Amino acid sequence: MQILSIPNFVMFLLLSLLPIALAVDSQSLDGKYSCVGTFIFGRHNDRVAKPANYLTTLGAVEQVESGTFYRERYFGLDEDGNSVNSDFVINGLDPQGYFVYGDTYAQCPASTVIEYSQMSFLQGLYPPSTAVNTNETLADTQDSELSNGTSVEAPLGGYQYVFMDVQSETSDDYFWIKGDENCPSSDAAIDAWYDTEAFKALNSSTFDFYQSLADLLPSTKFPKSKLNFGNAMNINDFVFVESIHDEDWATKWNSSLRYQIATLADAAQWGISYDASNKLNNFTIGGQSLLGASLTYLNATKEKGSPYINYFTGSFNTMYQIFGLLELNQISDNFTGMPGYGATLVWDLLKDTSDNYFVQFSFKNGTDDDDELVAYPLFGLNSTVLSWDDFVAKTEAVSITNLEDWCGKCSSTSSQCTRYSSTYEQASEAEDKGIDLEKVADGSYHLNKLTNAGAGGIGAGVTIGVFLILGALVFAWKKLRSKKAPLLPVAKTVSRETKAENSSASNAST
């Protein structure tokens, strides 16, 4: 072992601490910059143990508090409408904190815990307001004044109905927020990890520890056959949730035991979230997709001026993947662990006095007052502020920026990927040539003035079989062809370029 001299040791220590020193308080902003937009990705908040289908009251309250925090940051207003100091106030937002369609874009998957988390956050960002009664322009648009001279007060104390874009599994934009679902490539990569020597070694070395938990966990949920490292995430989830909500269970586990269970769960999750030899391993496809969203939606804000606030709500597994893709694990081992409920990743779009654009990344690990929003350098760089061009180049290298690329990388057979299949292209070409695929599908089409039976007589049986497949696809093709343009077109073309829970966990990584 090399023994470092005192001067060398001091230098080594300083160098090892350099990345941490580069992290800065994200509540203040250099005077040459102004904030013109933001992209926020937030984890859901407190819920019951899996399988979970609702947000707890605690979770809802904490999400509202998180929304209030960002209201103060970007509106310069508290929940009561009083002005607060903030270097990040976005001038394009309504000065009274009233929701204006198009100012904020919120997206989440159709998953109850995540949907309710997003809704609660938005209640904090846009709390009940009477601004419509005090702002003449808004009052006119809301028709609060009636012809008889009376004025109608808003229901629910001025509750604001904030638009949420909830994505189903079959929607084109679902991959942005849940890129590791319906993704065979991601599934295969994660499955392969369970066959690695690293996993087998951890599973073996921790076996006795997990077996010792038999008397401390419900046997109906965790029989001895499931007490192993392969179920580390599920075991930790139960212990973590019940430590918050069930006094009887909580008394069974001391802090040391909970820490050990949580640390092993972190190792299990990190194992399927980061590969030091290949940062773009297929089990990071969910993270790659979300990073593509950060670039795509910030670019829309840059080019179109709005939405000013983009807020996506998702799961912890995506955050693990993002930490590795952004090389934040090189800054601190804390980025290899479970992010707190309601944790938020923030990409602020900045502009200097010369109209040059920059991006600053920050992270807030939870919703408590002592969970500070801190800016960190990305991609191993030395500054927390990246020029727009550097941000684009670095993010493109580790992201998926369109549906076609996602379909190809995932080898997905999801319905939204149909248009990119060779069969779909053949169907499109056939219809362009005047072939009625619907008639082919029901057997009434005449090929070269012959019946299908006659065509079969000249060896076209295989051809008809293909057309039957094409006919089945034509409905999806016509539906896709008639779709409207996306809500947020990207003015600048960006280049193309896991399930993050263990295989025994729920598909919803919440």
UniProtKB/TrEMBL annotation:
Superkingdom of the source species: Eukaryota
Molecular functions per Gene Ontology: phosphatase activity
Signal peptide: 1-23
InterPro entries: His_PPase_superfam, Histidine_acid_phosphatase
Spans traversing the lipid bilayer: 454-477
UniProt keyword terms in alphabetical order: Membrane, Signal, Transmembrane, Transmembrane helix
UniProt name for this protein: Acid phosphatase
Naturally occurring in which organism (per UniProt): Ogataea parapolymorpha (strain ATCC 26012 / BCRC 20466 / JCM 22074 / NRRL Y-7560 / DL-1)
